[in-house]
Every structure is written in structure tokens, then in C-alpha cells.
């Protein structure tokens, strides 16, 4: 086994919860911390540009990440279908459907909640990033009774350090069906298509209707044929240990139904949530959110309808969302997450920035719902205002952008100091335009081992980030710290959009 056979990438860990939140009264009494001024517009633009470097398939004429070329143009051919396009999840060359669908959902939620804060050109770029994913996801659900959930053998892929343009490892196709169910990946795909349908409702109504129609069909498939895709021996060999279903498929069914309710306003999905919530674990109130566990995000999403639509049967979701936020308040009785000395939320396991971006997004989305309905977070004797949640999100995002003990940005290309040795094959190897000759599987080893910076800066990529002591060594081999992922950036797009319009979050509500 080679030293770069990274069988346990950052995707191995699902997001966990809470982090330090100053009490409301103290926050109102203190000024904003002294910190550098950040160019949130620049960071937003780069966070969206990142997705172009992750593209698979035939690249468009307006491709801006010019170090990339066409790749995986025969994906799906082994089963006679077209599965070209979509995204590589991280620094490898596999198309994992579960995190890709979650990425799409979060990109869409970012635009739905905070798209009005985006400059027009960046909103268009964000929509293009979403459409690159949904065009692919539509292909995965275009054959009755089957949902294609992955392309690429991860074992052979992770045994190579190879550009996607040169990829010659097995492009194995994995799928779920009635007799090998995958409700989590199908449910998340339904959520992604439904959320994306809202993004395109005004600009491309026909495409929006197509997305919503497919979302309903794939949700019906997920609900009719219940089961976890990593329980199937054939699928497990491909999806584990990378994107196993560690937490069950039930939350994805509720998550898919919640997005279909929001996108369609169809009462049947409200009925589904009301009738199946307890059976599907809504009362578990698990304080996690990420590609594998949707509970905290689900509670925030559904609580919007209770607060703004006064659907009283959904009150428990608001209570659970409050409970999640209260775990961030030190005076509450809830346990609190580990923090680095510099103040960054920290969850052991790798790809820590996925926790930071997803929780920051939830803080801002929930603050928006609370503000619109003139409500606060009820933590017993403590009432936490929306402005308090916004300030805590700002602290996390600003740490990521450079307000940290290392005095470096963890986004490639942002600021004066940022990671140079990112764990990413295409970024570290010479581009196809500068080195058109084929680079075979093992021929990239010297580039992997090289102490030199990556040859192609992957602008906008956010790495896994520092350890619990705030230290970051900028080591390409340490993938837990140095590998970017699409699901780190997806919720970050929404958070940065908010701060473009509200750079002094906590003082001004818009």
C-alpha cells in the first residue's frame, strides 16, 4: 500500500455541533473584536470559482479555471448510459453521489436565502455551479427504477496520484434500485433537485419544473424502497469507508420531504412530515449537520414554516432548533463543543472546516428566520437574539479568512498568506496545457512528495484547516488538514453572501 492511499479522506466524518456563543447581554455590551477588514466580495467570488476546478466532463467555453481540461468523457459507458459531468468531491477523481447531492442542496440553499445579497455576476456564477451539478443529477435519475449513485472505483483511484484528464482507473458505476435500496442518497438527491428548482424558478421556469418533477419521482422511489445503500455488500465495497451511511437514511427522507414542501407548497409533503416525523427520528434531536446527518439543518429548515407560516403542528422543530442553538450558549445546561485556543470550532476527525461552514450557515439562516418573525432563541432563562447568532458566524468565517493565530487564510488565493500544498491531484500536477503528455498512475508520486507549492493554485479551495492547537503545517500528505471538499465550500457561499451585504453583522440586520 502506498503512503498516499488515503482510504479515509475528510469525507469519513459527518458534521457535529455546538460551539462557544457569548451570552446575549454580554455580546450587546461589547464592541466587535478588533480584527482586520475582510473583502467578503472577493472571498465569495473565489468560493464559487472553486467549483470550476472540481468539474468533471466536457468543460464549457467560459471555463475560468483554465488549468483544468476535459475529463471522464466516457463515464457511464460500461452500463450503456451517459453519466458525464458533475463534480469530483475533493482531491480525488471519484464522483460520489451522496456528498454531491448534499453539496447541491447547500449551494441552492445558499442562493435561496442569501442570493439577493450577491452581486449579480456572482449570483449567475453560483447558479452555473448549481446547474453543473443538477444537469448531472438529472442523468442519474433518468432511468426508471434506478438511481446511479457513484462513478469511479475509489480503491484504484486513491492508489494513484493522477490528473483527472489522464485518469485510466476503473470508472465503475454504482446504483441503487428496488432490490438494493439507497434511501439516503435518493432522498438527498430529491432534496437537491427540489432546492435547485427554486433557484431557477424565475430565470428558467421550464428547467425549474423539470427539476421539481424529478425530485418528486426520486423521493417516491426513496420512500417506497427504504434502506441504506451501504448495507448492500456490492455497494458497500465502493461507498465505504468514504461515504458510508453512518447515521441511517431516515433523516434524508424527512429532509427530502421538507425541501419538496418548501419548493412545491404541496400539502402532501407537509402531511408526510407530520405523519412520519416520529417514525423517522424527528424527535431524536441530534445536534449534527453534514453530508450524512441532516438533523440540525432539518430542524432549522422546518422551523421556518412554523415561525413564518404559523403551522402549529411543526412547533417541535422550532423547539429542537432552539435546543441546537442553546448548545452554543455556555450558560445553558447543554454540553459544548471543543474550541481551539484561537476560537475555531473543532471536531476531531479531519476536514474540520466542514463543521465551521455548515454551522455558520445554519446560524445565519436561523437568525434570518428569527428576525423576520420577531422571535429569539429560548434557552430557558436566556433569550438569544438573532444578532448574537450572526456575530458568532462572523467570528468563525473571519477566522477562516485570516483572523487566527497562524495569520493565514485557509482559502487558496484569498489574502497574502494561504495554503500552498493542497492535497489535490489536479492542482499539484502540471496542467494538461503545460504538460500535454500522459502522466500515469504512479508517475505523479514525485509531485505528491514534492515540498514545492502546487503548480496550479486551486483558487477558492478551503482546506480542512488547522489542528486543535491552531497549527497548520501546509503538508500535502496530511489530507485531513490540507484537502478541500465541495461540501466545505457549498454552505460557505451563503455565509459569505450574507457578509457581503452585512459586513458588520450583529449591528445591522437586513
TrEMBL record:
Descriptive protein name: Endoglucanase
Catalytic activity, reaction form: Endohydrolysis of (1->4)-beta-D-glucosidic linkages in cellulose, lichenin and cereal beta-D-glucans
GO molecular function: cellulase activity
InterPro entries reported in the protein's UniProt record: 6-hairpin_glycosidase_sf (IPR008928), 6hp_glycosidase-like_sf (IPR012341), Glyco_hydro_9 (IPR001701), Glyco_hydro_9_Asp/Glu_AS (IPR033126), Glyco_hydro_9_His_AS (IPR018221)
Pfam families associated with the record: Glyco_hydro_9
Family of this protein: Belongs to the glycosyl hydrolase 9 (cellulase E) family.
UniProt keyword terms in alphabetical order: Carbohydrate metabolism, Cellulose degradation, Glycosidase, Hydrolase, Polysaccharide degradation, Signal
EC number in record: 3.2.1.4
Residue ranges constituting the Glycoside hydrolase family domain according to the UniProt record: 40-496
The keyword Hydrolase is assigned to this record: yes
GO biological process, one term: cellulose catabolic process
Signal peptide segment: 1-37
Species the sequence originates in: Ensete ventricosum (Abyssinian banana)
Active site annotation, chain numbering: 423, 474, 483
